[in-house]
């Protein structure tokens, strides 16, 4: 009988390279939210893929940035932790991209003692010549990596990468129960569904000034009743989130509810409120409360 394999596969890269799309392709569920805005992923999200003789623990981390305030520093701590427990590192770049935004992270990749798979994503947006140049450049820049060309959105090349991950996994018993999909609680996915709609529908600073706190999650046989609070930093932002006669907030609620009904497979009753929580992004106590400084 074949030995069981299990290990942590950590996905890192700049913002907007498609890490969340790749993660969801591997897992087959929308665990990570996806929008066109940078810094969509704030936490480290674990997705678990089980086979008869393997367990792949995929970790989607925030995009690498130079932190401007306390929240962003906490986000980069999640990236640092991804180097510490990884058995395999996936370094995701976009076709046409040249560098990682932080030199120290790049040095960690090029000196990694674990297998590194460098994935050139969004190849459907280029041509063969561009791809050939990119492969050559990245092979020179990261000589310790195996290079793959993929389109996470089209699922092109993704099964080949996954098969290679399974080959590289160390022998180990499973870390989590075989029917578990993620390490995050239900409330986390409620918060993320609401935050995704805010990222989609609001401009400028608003999406980055928002945090969600789900105060109530009551599950019955037929329905889940949820009450969530949208935290903003200023009174003016509260007015923008709510919109004229509550129209903007209503749209967020309707769209988030539809996604949550698909995710949980049950009817959802969702109540949304908006509160001002001044300077929460720079307040260590508040950041701990929202799960950033654990």
From TrEMBL:
<dbReference type="InterPro" id="IPR015946">
    <property type="entry name" value="KH_dom-like_a/b"/>
</dbReference>
<feature type="binding site">
    <location>
        <begin position="13"/>
        <end position="20"/>
    </location>
    <ligand>
        <name>GTP</name>
    </ligand>
</feature>
<keyword id="KW-0472">Membrane</keyword>
<keyword id="KW-0690">Ribosome biogenesis</keyword>
<keyword id="KW-0342">GTP-binding</keyword>
<dbReference type="InterPro" id="IPR030388">
    <property type="entry name" value="G_ERA_dom"/>
</dbReference>
<keyword id="KW-1003">Cell membrane</keyword>
<feature type="region of interest" description="G3">
    <location>
        <begin position="60"/>
        <end position="63"/>
    </location>
</feature>
<dbReference type="InterPro" id="IPR004044">
    <property type="entry name" value="KH_dom_type_2"/>
</dbReference>
<dbReference type="InterPro" id="IPR027417">
    <property type="entry name" value="P-loop_NTPase"/>
</dbReference>
<feature type="region of interest" description="G4">
    <location>
        <begin position="121"/>
        <end position="124"/>
    </location>
</feature>
<dbReference type="Pfam" id="PF01926">
    <property type="entry name" value="MMR_HSR1"/>
</dbReference>
<feature type="domain" description="Era-type G">
    <location>
        <begin position="5"/>
        <end position="171"/>
    </location>
</feature>
<feature type="binding site">
    <location>
        <begin position="60"/>
        <end position="64"/>
    </location>
    <ligand>
        <name>GTP</name>
    </ligand>
</feature>
<comment type="function">
    <text>An essential GTPase that binds both GDP and GTP, with rapid nucleotide exchange. Plays a role in 16S rRNA processing and 30S ribosomal subunit biogenesis and possibly also in cell cycle regulation and energy metabolism.</text>
</comment>
<keyword id="KW-0694">RNA-binding</keyword>
<dbReference type="InterPro" id="IPR006073">
    <property type="entry name" value="GTP-bd"/>
</dbReference>
<feature type="binding site">
    <location>
        <begin position="121"/>
        <end position="124"/>
    </location>
    <ligand>
        <name>GTP</name>
    </ligand>
</feature>
<dbReference type="InterPro" id="IPR005662">
    <property type="entry name" value="GTPase_Era-like"/>
</dbReference>
<dbReference type="InterPro" id="IPR005225">
    <property type="entry name" value="Small_GTP-bd"/>
</dbReference>
<keyword id="KW-0963">Cytoplasm</keyword>
<feature type="region of interest" description="G5">
    <location>
        <begin position="150"/>
        <end position="152"/>
    </location>
</feature>
<comment type="subunit">
    <text>Monomer.</text>
</comment>
<protein>
    <recommendedName>
        <fullName>GTPase Era</fullName>
    </recommendedName>
</protein>
<keyword id="KW-0547">Nucleotide-binding</keyword>
<feature type="region of interest" description="G1">
    <location>
        <begin position="13"/>
        <end position="20"/>
    </location>
</feature>
<keyword id="KW-0699">rRNA-binding</keyword>
<comment type="similarity">
    <text>Belongs to the TRAFAC class TrmE-Era-EngA-EngB-Septin-like GTPase superfamily. Era GTPase family.</text>
</comment>
<dbReference type="InterPro" id="IPR009019">
    <property type="entry name" value="KH_sf_prok-type"/>
</dbReference>
<feature type="region of interest" description="G2">
    <location>
        <begin position="39"/>
        <end position="43"/>
    </location>
</feature>
<dbReference type="Pfam" id="PF07650">
    <property type="entry name" value="KH_2"/>
</dbReference>
<feature type="domain" description="KH type-2">
    <location>
        <begin position="202"/>
        <end position="278"/>
    </location>
</feature>
